[in-house]
What does this fold into?
Amino acid sequence: MYNQSEITTYLKKINYQGDNSVNLHNLRQLQYCHLLRIPYENLSAMNGSPVLLDESSLYDKIISHDRGGYCFELQGLFYYLLKSLGYQVEQFAGRFMDEPGHIQMRRHRVLVMTLEGKRYVCDVGVRSESSRFPLELVEDVIQSDCVGEYYYKKDPFYGWVQMQRLKGKDWKTILGFTEEKQIDDDYVMPSFYCEKHPDSTFNKFMKISIFTDKANLNIVGNEYRVFAEGRIQERRQIQNDTEARRILAEHFHIQVPPDYKKLLLEHT
It folds into this structure.
């Protein structure tokens, strides 16, 4: 677990202004602040730098060196913070459901808090628009983060299935998870697949994301996008490496290591 000095630095990094009491209000603020300050990013996998999931390596990379990570890293870092603060946290493995007719492998780290007699799903590791606040794990109750609406239903195969509705859109499935408890090492193999497998897209082009209070800023490949109000509001091509590094620093709080040479796909 993180010591008090590490916790203080972590909370300063995400601009969290509350105290360290274990309650739902603070949990909501921790998730919200995390999403606005720490980005989703895959630059390590793209550049052949090992993706390490132990608590010390995650802290050093993300907190000490102004980086982000993908879900196994971000959810792992947040898990260690919450445990260090005294929250009761369980870990599960989830499947994204954004490819109709295709069952995807389990490649998402799911965190569930038990707090004040209820359970909440906390997620700081999704690249696209997702809930800015913890969602109570209960069936058929619509919940809102003031940007989108969410509810959970049960499925005999997927288990808990998260549904989402954004402005002007229909309900869609996001991910599902069953309740086999996972240990930290259970995420090493799916993370290594994302990092190294030839079929993985995580090692081929930029997948970057961060939240504002009402929007999701992201980069896919060479394109920078602003997503809000249920649609892409702005999109533009990133022209060169210098521009990419500037955008990553200004909008995503990422300090790209100088030896990372792979950022943009070659223009065709």
